[in-house]
Amino acid sequence: MYATQPLLPEFRHIFGASEAAVGLTVTATSFGCAAAAPLVGSLADSIGRKRVIVAAIVILALVTYAAATATTLPALIAWRAAQGALMPGVFAVTLAYIAEEFPASVAGSAVAAYVTGNVLGGFLGRYISANVAAHAPWQVVFLVLGTLNLVGVSYVIVALPRSQHFVRSPLSFAASGRAMLGFLRDPQVVTTYLMGGTVLFTLVAAFTFVTFHLADAPFRLSTAAIGNVFIVYLLGLISTPLGGRMIDRLGNRGATLVALTASVAGLLLTLIPSVPAIVIGLAVMSSGVFVMQTSSQGYLGQIVHENRSTASAVYFTFYYVGGGLGAVVPAWAWTHGGWSATVALIVALQAAVGALAVFGWRARSTRNATSSVPG
Questions:
Q1: How far apart are CA 76 and CA 341, in angstroms?
Q2: CB of 330 closer than 8 Å to CB of 346
Q3: C-alpha closest to that of 243 among 370, 119, 97, 100
Q4: Which domains are present in the chain?
Q5: Residues of 326-341 as b/e, b for ≥16 C-beta within 10 angstroms?
Q6: pTM to 2 decimal places
Q7: How far, in Å, CA of 235 to CA of 123, rounded?
Q8: Closest CA to 138 of 219, 75, 210
Q9: Taking the CA of residue 108 as centre, how many other CA atoms within 13 Å lie in the half-sphere pointing to its CB?
Q10: Nearest Cα to 254, choosing from 220, 225, 291, 285?
Q11: pLDDT per residue over 77-104, tens digit each?
Q12: What are the two backbone dihedrals, phi and then psi, of residue 306, each rounded to the nearest 5 degrees?
C-alpha cells in the first residue's frame, strides 16, 4: 500500500510535480481501499472469508504488474487506486476471520499478531521499493511487489485454515446497507471508526512528509537511505505483541492512552535536527501507533458480533480515508511551516485520539466484552 512513500522525492523530480501531487500515489490507494471495503464486506459475509482473501491477492498481483506500465503520474495514480480497491479483500476480511475464530480471552494477542504481519508488510513494501528503485527504474518496483504477492497467495492457499465459526449471510446489499446504518448509529462503533482513521492519518502523515524533510537540506538523504529509515517499522514486531498483552491487561482505553503518550513523545523527538534523533523518534512514534491500531481494531471485534465483515469493512473505509488524507492534507502545513508545522498538526490529531478514547469508549477489558451491535 505504501510502497511509493520512499519514492515521493524522486517522483517529485521525475514528474515535475508538487509534494501534494505525488502524495496522491499514496492517497489514491487508500481511497480505493476505502471505497471498495463495504462491498467486499458484504461479499465475504456471503461466500466465505478464505475465498475472498485468495481471489483478492491474485487479482492484486496482476494489477500491481500493470502499474509498472504507467508512463505518467495520472496513470500511476489510477493503477494505485485499482490496487487499493482490491486490498479490503485481504485486510477487512482477515480481521473478521480473526474475530470469529479466536476466543475473547486472547483477542488482544490475536489482533496483535495480525497487526504485526501488517507491520512487517508495511516495512517490506517501503524498504524493498526504495532499494529496488536505487538500482533500477521505479517501474521494476511494481514487478517485484507483484511477484511477492503471488508467492504470498500460494502460502495462504496452503496454510490458512477454513473458517470453523463462519455463518453465511445472504448476499444482499440492502441488508448490508441496513447493517452499516446500524453501526453508524452506535456511538462506540463510530468512535472506534474515527479513532482508526485518525491514527492512520498521523502515521501516514509522519512517514510521508519526513521523506521530504530528510531529502531536503540539511540532510539530503538518497532514496535508498530514506528507505533504510523505514527499518524502524521492525520495532513494531516487538511493540505490537507487547501491546496486545498490555491491552489484555489494561483494557483498550488504558493501553491506547499509554501508547498515545509514547507516540507524541516520539514525534517531538523528531524536531531535533539530527538524523539519529529523527530515526529514534519515528521508531517510538510508530510503535505507539501500532499499539493504538491493535487496540481500535480489537475493540471493534469486541462490540460487534453480527455482520463482522461489514463492520470491519466500514472500519477500513474510515481507516483508509484517514490514511489517504494523511498523505496530502499536511502539505499545507509543510508548505507554510516545514517539518515543525507538520509535527504540530500530527500532535493535535493524536490529542484528538486521546479524547475519543477517554470520552467515547467504555473502560473495559477484553475478557469482559459482552455488548453487541445490532446488524
A1: 29
A2: yes
A3: 119
A4: 5-161+177-368 (1.20.1250.20)
A5: bbbbbbebbeeeebeb
A6: 0.78
A7: 10
A8: 75
A9: 28
A10: 291
A11: 999 999 999 998 888 788 778 878 777 7
A12: -130, 150
